[in-house]
């Protein structure tokens, strides 16, 4: 009898946790604007980018039956969708030099709202970073993507991109009630 009762309790705990009994609380601060500045040199030309990451709380919603999550929207105030620093086609991979990629791009990933808005469910990898993405095919009609953040040293070594100045806003300390 005790084993059956223990089994029922364990199953109940699993069902409750999978159904997300504990909905996350909404943030106290629902809107934020976070300026950033990126200045770099490429092929002897200096590029200077200033923009603002706008972050807004959208809702708390179901996460495919695995509980609930806070959903955020983020966008650049300038209306730009993506800040591409460099792109090229049919070039050797930096990650796997024996492979030729159909397309590569170095871009400024301005970060996610969860990071800036102090959401404890966010992660450190959501902060602003300069990323490199490779697009390649192993078989016809099968496209793959590899992506990785790059250091300033890697940018200069592999692409001749010299970071002159780069700063971005720190995340806020938000509360959730």
Structure report:
The structure is a single chain. The protein has 177 residues and is of the alpha+beta class. Helices cover 16% and strands 49% of the residues. It is built from 3 helices and 8 strands, in the order αβββββαββαβ. The protein has a 4-stranded antiparallel β-sheet. A 4-stranded antiparallel β-sheet has the order 4-5-6-7, with no helix packed on it. The chain is globular and about 65 Å long. The mean pLDDT is 87.
Brief rundown of the structure:
By secondary structure, this protein is of the alpha+beta class.
Write out the strand line-up for the largest beta sheet, numbering strands in chain order.
Answer: 3-2-1-8
Order of helices and strands: HEEEEEHEEHE
- Topology, number of strands: 8
Radius of gyration: 22 Å
Question: Any key phrases for this structure?
Answer:
4-stranded antiparallel β-sheet, 8 strands, alpha+beta, 177 residues
Task: Please outline the helices and strands.
Layout: H1 2-18, E1 31-42, E2 45-62, E3 68-76, E4 83-92, E5 100-109, H2 113-116, E6 129-139, E7 142-149, H3 152-159, E8 161-168
Antiparallel strand pairs: 1-2, 1-8, 2-3, 4-5, 5-6, 6-7
């Amino acid at each position: 009898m005790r084993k059956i009762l223990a089994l029922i309790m364990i199953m109940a705990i699993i069902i409750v946790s999978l159904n997300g009994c504990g909905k996350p609380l909404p943030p106290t601060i629902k809107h934020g604007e976070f300026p950033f500045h990126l200045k770099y040199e490429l092929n002897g030309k200096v590029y200077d980018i200033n923009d603002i990451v706008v972050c807004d709380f959208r809702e708390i919603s179901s996460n495919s039956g695995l509980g609930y999550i806070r959903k955020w929207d983020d966008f650049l105030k300038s209306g730009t969708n993506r800040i591409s620093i460099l792109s090229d086609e049919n070039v050797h991979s930096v990650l796997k030099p024996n492979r030729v990629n159909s397309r590569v791009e170095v871009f400024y990933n301005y970060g996610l709202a969860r990071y800036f808005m102090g959401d404890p469910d966010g992660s450190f990898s959501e902060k602003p970073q300069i990323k490199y993405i490779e697009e390649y095919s192993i078989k016809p009609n099968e496209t793959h993507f590899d992506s990785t953040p790059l250091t300033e040293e890697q940018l200069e070594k592999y692409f001749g991109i010299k970071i002159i100045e780069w700063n971005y806003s720190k995340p806020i300390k938000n509360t959730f009630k």
